[in-house]
Write a structure and sequence with these properties.
5-stranded mixed beta sheet, alpha/beta, 9 helices, about 240 residues
């Protein structure tokens, strides 16, 4: 079995197309949430709907918020939520609001649980530097030996206790040392973290005229991403502050 895991597309239709061009005849695609919160929400949702192979789509925190037209986070996030919701049809928003939190697939590599952030939350933060004890607590009720997640937009692959935890990275808004569209390729008993390139400058120009509020933030994230080390340190600081 071959599965492509595409996480955190965030309305970046060009990055999505770049990954779809690289995928080589998978049996299924898992879309790991946070699909439409970004500069091209409707194009992204519509493009995913045209894929002919099975697509298993999870709900991310941004999908939940866009579906509800959430305006409780405050500031620029609320403005983007409201704008993205306005770009989608009622049917598309309803679909985002009814997506499952997890999906489990079984292949040659074994049983794999896909979730957005963690198996118990679409917002919980785990990184490559989360202490083993904290990660074991997060995974305590999980029987599946392999867990694939996203949410923090930084790829990692680590083993803790009886689990292997892989962050697929972000297709549309990565926190990585190089620009790109990051994704995960599972084929047989092999698992590979991948990166696709595309025309970042052209995408930034398109975003500038998309009408999306705070478009410059999306442009900057595509042209000069926050590095993996910076993002990891930031999310670890937030994680510790919540405990």
């Amino acid at each position: 079995m071959r599965v492509a895991a595409l996480y955190d597309i965030h309305g970046n239709i060009d990055a999505l197309e770049a990954v779809l061009e690289e995928i080589d005849e998978p049996d299924a695609i898992v879309v790991g949430g946070d699909i439409a919160w970004g500069p091209f929400p409707r194009l992204t949702v519509e493009r995913l709907a045209t894929i002919e192979i099975p697509v298993l789509t999870l709900q991310g925190n941004a999908d939940r918020e866009v579906a509800a037209g959430q305006t409780s986070a405050g500031g620029w996030v609320d403005e983007v939520n409201t704008w993205c919701a306005s770009q989608l049809t009622e049917e598309q928003r309803a679909s985002l609001g009814n997506l499952p939190a997890t999906v489990t697939l079984v292949g040659e590599i074994g049983e794999v649980l896909f979730c957005h952030a963690t198996p118990r939350s679409d917002e919980e933060l785990i990184t490559s530097q989360t202490p083993d004890a904290a990660l074991i607590e997060v995974l305590g009720g999980v029987k599946t030996p392999i867990v694939v997640c996203g949410h923090t937009h930084t790829q990692f692959d680590r083993n803790v206790s009886r689990w292997r935890v892989i962050n697929a990275g972000s297709v549309g808004l990565p926190n990585e040392d190089l620009p790109g569209a990051y994704w995960l390729d599972l084929e047989g008993d092999r698992l590979q973290l991948r990166r696709a390139e595309y025309d970042y400058e052209a995408t930034a120009s398109r975003i500038r005229t998309s009408g999306c509020p705070y478009s410059e933030r999306f442009e900057d994230s595509i042209l000069q991403p926050t590095t993996a080390a910076e993002a990891t340190a930031h999310f670890e600081s937030l994680r510790k502050g919540r405990h």
